[in-house]
Amino acid sequence: MKGFTDLGYARVDTDREARQGLPEVVYGPGKRPEEITGIVTELLARSTGPVLVTRVEPEVAAAVDVPGGSYDETARLLAWRPAADRGFQVCVATAGTSDWPVASEAEAVASAIGLRTHVVRDVGVAGIHRLLAAEEDLRQADAVIVVAGMEGALASAVGGLVSCPVIAVPTSTGYGASLEGVTALLAMLTSCAAGLTVVNIDSGFSAAMAAHRLAAVARR
């Protein structure tokens, strides 16, 4: 059994749900609306879980011809068949308001795949009292996704406060020496708070999927 459908322009991984618990997630950039339509139609027919398309601009989303979907413009996420609540609590914490588009992707993807989400906004270390005021929200979570640019210090601060897994997302927010997120990425990778998971720059999607894998193991 080959486990995929060849559409000519894409080989749709129809076996992904059996291997990883979710259907293949479609990366939107570079795909025409009719290609997204074909891929999503195939995934809906060959799976039972949520079908998602990430990084979709509004004009492309409007041209995708598959009934029953919803679109989150801030997260740039198209979603069909969102999953039922899996009982795994994820807190999404952002350092600053400018980090919200990336955090929004993490929150929207996590919600669509059945994770309970709670958002704590604007708790960056430049005003550490804002973070400490949200300490109980952070500690009640099964996992925390920390989204931060600049020097990325929020991930270390949260990692020192909670015992649950912390998934750090560096963002490209910041001035020149932030190097479009590289500074935050390196800071998170070298964090003094041991055991952080660090994903790619601006990839809220990757953070949500890391939380998905944690939830799957917790459920077993």
From TrEMBL:
Transmembrane segments: none annotated. Residues 88-220 form the PurE domain. Pfam families: AIRC. One of its GO terms (molecular function) is hydrolase activity. InterPro entries: P2CMN_synthase_LarB, PurE_dom. NCBIfam families: LarB. It comes from the Bacteria. This is Nickel pincer cofactor biosynthesis protein LarB. GO terms for biological process: 'de novo' IMP biosynthetic process.
